[in-house]
Amino acid sequence: MTSQCVTVRVQSEDFDQAVETALLTKGRTDIGAVATFSGLCRGEGETLTALELEHYPGMAESEIETVTNEAMKRWPIDGLTVIHRYGKILPGEQIVLVIATSKHRDAAFDGARYVMDFLKTNAPFWKKEHRADGDDSNWVDAREEDEQAKARWE
Amino acid sequence: MAGVDTKLVYFSWVRERVGKGEERIILPEEISTVMELLLWLKQRDESFAAALEFPEIIRVALDQEHAEHTDKIGTPREIAIFPPMTGG
User: Fold this and answer.
1) What is the 3-state secondary structure (H, E, C) of B4-47?
2) pTM for this structure?
3) Nearest CA to CA, how far is A76 from chain B (Å)?
4) What ipTM describes this predicted complex?
5) Fold of B4-82
6) A5-151: what CATH class?
7) Which of A136, A142, B73 is nearest to A150 (CA)?
8) Interface mutation target, options A56, A97, A144, chain B, most CBs of B under 10 Å
């Protein structure tokens, strides 16, 4: 079996890495590499009580799909799963998951990293901080490093 | 595109500063590019002046596709206006 499998989900619910990985690998004997990235909510030294993720429904999914399609063109990737959550997320909880599978590790590593780098700056999500001191007015600033990370692939 | 009825949607701190998530407007016919739209919106009232104080950093999507500030607007059904994205 050599079919390619791309899954993109934007959801408020949590996800299970093991379940998502099994969906890509179960019953297959041709996959030699699975690269998994998951992004978690940091507590920032207990100053943060939660992140609130806002998204643009429809465009969030389509922008991630654009990135996954490009990754599938650039590398021999067999399976690619991207899940991004929205809503209130507590420190330690999962925000985003990228799993790339391939015959060899380079395509899996590079594909997963490429998807994360472009997702960061192109997918319409915004993080708002809920702070321990009661201040919940601060939106997280975009980072110049994220633009540079994307530029690496151009 | 004279007098085209268009839906505008706002996100994140742009939404908070303009005080609404969406509205319908008639785009003035003299507006041609994305930046011209931002500058026109900015002078509508104090809320928009605050939201679009630095129009050069504001991102715009036309029918859910990213647009450059120099792009012609055309006749989209939906225009989204938002800050740089911070997902992932």
Assistant:
1) EEEEEEECHHHHHHHCCCEEEEEECCCCCEHHHHHHHHHCCCHH
2) 0.95
3) 24
4) 0.95
5) Ubiquitin-like (UB roll) (3.10.20)
6) alpha beta
7) A142
8) A56
